[in-house]
Hemerythrin-like domain-containing protein (Apodospora peruviana), 260 residues
Amino acid sequence: MTTALTMWADQPFALIPVKSLRSSSPMALFMSQDMANAHNNLLRALNSVYNQAPYVTNEADKRDLLQYTAFWVDWIEHHHHGEEEVLFPAVTRVTGKESLMAHNIEQHEAFLPGLHALKDYVTACLDTAKPDVVFASQRYREIVDSFAHILSEHLADEIVTLTGLEVCEAGDAAKLKEAYAEFDAKMREGDKSILYPLVMGSSDAGFEGGGALWPAVPPPVRYLIHYVFERKHRSVWRFLPSDTWGKRKVVAFGPSADHE
Ligand SMILES: [Fe+2]
């Protein structure tokens, strides 16, 4: 049996290497690094709850796990809508290559049924009008297993597409920069009491040796998030892998964990 400390959120769904990314286009490299960091946060947040699910027994804790999962599904849907509505069309316009983002959109379609099944399951479990639908960790993980490998493959493949944008002419960099800024601004939209704690708490300050905590925000912002925005759903954030500063937390629910 593994101990709680060995099942941290860098597994089972593989994270994406960032420091080794290369591109001849500085703008393509910036986009691919930023996107890979965002994808890694999405993956850590999923890994964290997936690993803890079998050890959640108390009803209040189960509701927090379900609520966390509902927030995570909304986050990843928001991410992919932003890509399909803003970033991918801009890349297609700039490169003139219709097919460039097509594979990524196909992959979105491939994992959507599983993602929706997870959303339906957690919504039903949280619905007090449906007392016959109750959380079972085995069922929960079966649903995640039905799509998470396709999802993680997509999250990695998208980075390969972005580094490949080195084919763009130099003059296109400014247009891509503008499109990425628009996408980034869209990613920051939403309920600050949900999105900000999720993003900060799924970072890893020590990833690949440390030195580049993502997202880069002014120090006071993390204090604001920790002391203000995390308050509303504080018990839900026990399932996050890290604290607001990207420091790995001791897993709250595991074979040898003391529940907070
Ligand atoms: Fe993405």
Remarks:
- Residues 35, 39, 79, 83, 158 surround fe (ii) ion (CB under 6 Å).
- The helical segments are 26-52, 59-95, 102-126, 137-145, 148-163, 172-187, 192-200, 219-229.
- The two ends are 22 Å apart (CA to CA).
